[in-house]
């Protein structure tokens, strides 16, 4: 915009060419309205009270120009004109505010419109994925899964646990271990079905009652032996606060188990966590019966059928205690 555009534009904004409501307030020297030719009253000087001098150079001031004492010399035409100008300025200001507000609303809609939620959802999912899968904390040769898992179960004392995978096992076997542990313990047939306890996986920095380890055969044997238990590098074990899953069993179960690997894995988790929750070993109830989860199923099913769950059809399923 250059100043040379102004004069012609101002010229087109003469009151005659515009409806009252759109009269711009930007008065210029070209704006003066038709003036009454009433002469100054007697006794008044040729000063600012004279109507001829009333219109200011800037339109913005015209409504504020005092006209004190000029009631007698102001004609009806002048008052009408001023009222119209005031109304025009007001209308213009109101319209400008409306345009600005509408413009802002449209801009807000564009930026906060439907494009945002998907982007936010993707970011959230990515963060959660990063915390759980990519940011484990190394503790003594183990990688402890990061982030908090969901609260498993609907009622009862909340017991927290961690999940740690021996680093030498690598991601091939241990990458989804935490997920599988949570899936098993969150199953409606698992220990939380009694509604007397809930479980939640927590990160390395949090306090927890116990840790579920996935350890190589050699490491698990050493860990279990440290607590006085002999596993011959074959079985899993549990020490106070430590549920130790032998990765060789996790990878291949046991010969003759006659059930999918997922069933054996669920059994191993529920059995060892069952010890942590205070349950001892139980016996097979008879040929063809489901094996109690606290039965040592790794050493053979004794005529029972493989079973991974402490609750069957919503009821606690247990065998006679042994030992
Ligand atoms: Zn046991």
Structure notes:
It is elongated and about 115 Å long. The protein folds into 2 domains: 81 residues, no CATH class; 188 residues, Collagenase (Catalytic Domain) (3-Layer(aba) Sandwich). By secondary structure, the chain is an alpha/beta fold. The N and C termini lie far apart (97 Å). 33% of the residues lie in helices and 12% in strands. The N terminus is likely disordered. The chain has 8 helices and 9 strands. The strands form 2 sheets. Strands 1, 2, 3, 4, 5, 6 and 7 form a 7-stranded mixed sheet that branches. A two-stranded antiparallel sheet has the order 8-9.
Q: How many separate domains?
A: 2
CATH arch. level architecture of the largest domain: 3-Layer(aba) Sandwich
Give the mean pLDDT. Answer: 73
In the CATH hierarchy, the third-tier topology of the largest domain is known as Collagenase (Catalytic Domain)
The level 1 CATH classification of the largest domain is Alpha Beta
Binned, the helix content reads 25-40%
Ligands, ions, cofactors: zinc ion
Shape: elongated
Helix- and strand-based class? alpha/beta
Query: Which value, in Å, is the CA radius of gyration?
Result: 43 Å
The rounded distance between the terminal residues' Cα atoms is 97 Å
Count of separate DSSP helical elements: 8
Order of helices and strands: HHHEEEHHEEHEEHHEE
- Uncertain runs are 1-74, 108-134
Q: How many strands, which pairing sense, and closed or not: the largest β-sheet?
A: 7 strands, mixed
- Fraction of residues in β-strands: 5-15%
Number of strands: 9
Overview in brief:
This protein is an alpha/beta fold and 323 residues long.
């Amino acid at each position: 915009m250059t100043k040379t555009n102004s004069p012609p534009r101002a010229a087109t904004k003469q009151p005659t060419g515009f409806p009252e409501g759109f009269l711009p307030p930007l008065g210029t020297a070209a704006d003066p309205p038709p003036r009454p030719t009433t002469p100054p009253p007697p006794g008044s000087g040729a000063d600012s009270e004279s109507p001829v001098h009333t219109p200011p150079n800037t339109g913005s001031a015209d409504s504020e120009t005092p006209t004190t004492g000029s009631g007698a010399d102001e004609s009806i035409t002048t008052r009408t004109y001023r009222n119209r100008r005031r109304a025009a300025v007001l209308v213009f200001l109101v319209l400008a505010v409306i345009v600005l507000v509408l413009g802002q609303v449209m801009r807000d809609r564009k930026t906060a419109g439907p494009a945002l939620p998907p982007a936010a959802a993707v970011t959230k999912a990515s963060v959660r994925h990063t915390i759980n899968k990519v940011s484990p904390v190394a503790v003594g040769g183990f990688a402890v899964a990061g982030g908090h898992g969901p609260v498993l179960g609907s009622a009862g004392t909340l017991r927290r646990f961690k999940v740690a995978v021996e680093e030498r096992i690598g991601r091939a076997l241990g990458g989804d271990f935490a997920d599988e542990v949570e899936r098993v313990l969150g199953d409606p047939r698992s220990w939380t079905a009694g509604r007397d306890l809930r479980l939640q996986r927590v990160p390395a920095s949090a306090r927890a009652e116990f840790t579920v380890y996935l350890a190589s055969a050699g490491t698990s044997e050493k860990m279990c032996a440290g607590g006085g238990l002999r596993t011959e590098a074959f079985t899993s074990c549990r020490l106070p606060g430590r549920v130790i899953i032998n990765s060789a069993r996790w990878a291949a179960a046991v010969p003759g188990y006659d059930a999918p690997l997922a069933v054996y894995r669920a059994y191993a988790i529920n059995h060892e966590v069952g010890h942590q929750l205070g349950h001892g070993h139980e016996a097979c109830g008879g040929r063809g019966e489901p094996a109690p989860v606290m039965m040592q199923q790794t050493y053979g099913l004794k005529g029972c059928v493989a079973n991974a769950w402490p609750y069957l059809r919503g009821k606690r399923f247990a065998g006679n205690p042994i030992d």
